[in-house]
Amino acid sequence: MLRISDLHLSLGRTKLLHGLDLDAHPGEITAILGPNGSGKSTLLRACAGELPYTGSIRLQGHEIAQTAPWRLAALRGVLEQSPSVAFPFTLRELVQLGLHAGIEAEQDEIVIAALAEVGLAGMADRPIHALSGGQQARAHLARVRAQIWRAQSHSGPRWLLLDEPMASLDIGHQMALVAILRRFAAEGGGVVTVMHDLNLSAQIADRMVLMAKGKVVASGPPRAVMRDEILSAVYGCPLRVGVSPATLPWLVPAFV
Amino acid sequence: MAMASLDLMARPERMRGGLRPALIALLMLASILSVTTGAAGVSLAHVTADWITGKEIGLRERVVLFDIRLPRLAMAVMVGAALAVAGAVMQGLFRNPLADPGIVGVGAGAGLGAVASIVLGGMLPGALAATLGPHLVPVAAFLGAWAATLLLYRVASRAGRTSVATLLLAGIAMAAMAGALTGVLTYLADDQQLRDLTFWGMGSLAGASWSKLAVATGLIVPALILAPQLARGLNALALGEAAAAHMGTDVERLKRHCVLAVAALAGASVALAGGIGFVGIVVPHLLRLIAGPDHRRLLVDSALLGAALLVLADLIARLIVSPAEMPIGIVTAILGAPVFLWILLQRRSFGSL
Question: Chain B contacts of A48, Cβ < 8 Å?
């Protein structure tokens, strides 16, 4: 599991996270939400090992700050918010970059399968710069998937850490991504994803984590977090939670 | 329809397959041309014919071939390979196809060292001057290159992390500083010294000897052999430092090794041959256009093409005003600058390289 306790983090003199506690479990999709500047991406980057912190972040028992990059790379893949590629790699080369980090044997098959999974089969020899923004986002997802192709390794569950993976996708590809994440979780892997869309998160997440000002203010299954009083306070505007279409929580602005 | 036209943008795989053998052939052809051509009128065919028929090879032929042309060829191969690989590594490190070793202060430091030794060399104590002798300028250039690079690396590193942006900016400041000091020395120089330092700046492979080569080989060859080990890390680094780390690269170690490799390659080259521009930018660029940016191919191919091009440039430098010779830096700039411009225009039309 991913266990974060008493996490403090500052960049320069700005304190971004103050005493944050959070557990995320393999087999589940955990969505991290909150207003702009609440520290969602900072939290994800800390979990990815990018930022120095005090307190503890343990992923499958490994304290992130004390684990070598190559060991972390075999344990979890990270999808950055807007990755850029300096040179015109082809999709095949891009996805191979992820592979080198992983520990899988049948490499070429994984590259093709990862591209097919995101709907880019047959584009393996195109340079990434010739693709649309949404296609590039999917290509990077394929790279991260290739790095963490199997949801479990002999040493336990593996993890996907994603920073707003839905941002540049149309609804069709959003649903395709949801299917990928659900399958990964169903196979025993862990998914932690920063999200912006409360409604979409409520539909897909097993657990929602609501952040504000560098702290977790609510966490639990969507029903527990999607509540008028919690959301209105966190986002600073009147909000009302309805239920639609069947029994899932559904958010509408309060003036509707 | 749209799919078919888009597929033109895919790079044909077979172009890559044939590239390595083509580069090796080019290097061999250039080497043979270089050894058999020259002002002295000694041709390899004659010597080979004599050798096969068992005739004694004349002293003059032997000197021209083994003491002049072969060391010069070896030097062109090593310097060309070193400059091109140093360029490719720098471009990978800075994630910018226009970077060159000059960015980490190698050129400016070497220039300052060389000019200082030319202008102030006479003030050295007699014993030291006698020991160094004709090697004074290369040694000073090499020390200057290393001092500049290490100083720059110190400035750009804090708490074990090196900022590539600071490296770039501090490099500009250091180059300006070294340029100013070089200016002071130039101002102090007498007429002969002015001539010497001007020609040093234009680069030359003249005066190549086995003893000079031996020293530089100790730096260039290990660095050339180790450089391909950086390929995976540089590939990952193309996605940025954070993404490279996510994929398992030890980014700080990679940066350290890149700077060391470049200082060894470019420092030794500039010490051997003076200022030779454009090889480090043009060669990796051409190869990226042909075979794509994968550093596992690029670093090795750069060494081959850089070596071949410098051998050819040296040939042109020797022939164009024969029996005198043009400084090779002029040749590489005259040939390299238009290619560089062409690359920039390509870049504009394709949006990005």
Answer: 242, 246
Find out whether A30 and A206 touch, Cβ atoms under 8 Å: yes
pLDDT band at A226 (very low <50, low <70, confident <90, very high): very high
Give the list of residues 6+ apart from residue B255 with CB closer than 8 angstroms, or none.
Answer: B93, B162, B164
The domains of chain A are located at 2-221
Taken in order B228, A130, B247, A49, the sign of the CA dihedral is positive
Question: For residue range B254-269, what is the model confidence (pLDDT) as tens digits?
Answer: 999 998 899 889 888 8
CATH of domain A2-221: 3.40.50.300
Give me the DSSP letters along A66-125: GS-HHHHHHHEEEE-SS---SS--BHHHHHHHHHHHS--S-HHHHHHHHHHHTT-TT-TT
Q: Is there a contact between A127 and B11 if contact means CB atoms under 8 Å apart?
A: yes
**Domain presence at residue B43:** no
Q: What is the pLDDT of residue A119?
A: 94
Q: How far is B103 from chain A (nearest CA, A)?
A: 18
What Rg do the C-alpha atoms of chain B give, in angstroms? 22
CATH of the domain at B128: 1.10.3470.10
Size of interface A-B (CB pairs under 8 A): 98
Q: Report, as an integer, the average pLDDT of B47-60.
A: 73
Secondary structure (DSSP) of A156-183:
EE-EEEEESTTTT--HHHHHHHHHHHHH
Interface of B with A in 104-133 (CB under 8 A): none
pLDDT band at B340 (very low <50, low <70, confident <90, very high): confident
Per-residue pLDDT of B287-339, as tens digits, reads 998 889 999 999 999 999 999 999 999 999 988 887 788 888 889 888 888 87
Shortest CB distance from B292 goes to which of A68, A90, A130?
A90
B253 touches A at CB < 8 Å: no
Asked if A83 has any chain B CB less than 8 Å from its own CB, the reply is: yes
Total domain count for chain B?
A: 1
Q: What is the domain extent for residue B255?
A: 57-350
Query: Could you tell me which residues come within 8 angstroms of residue B125 by beta carbon, excluding any fewer than 6 positions away?
Result: none
The upper half-sphere exposure of residue A26, i.e. CA atoms within 13 Å in the direction of its Cβ, equals 16
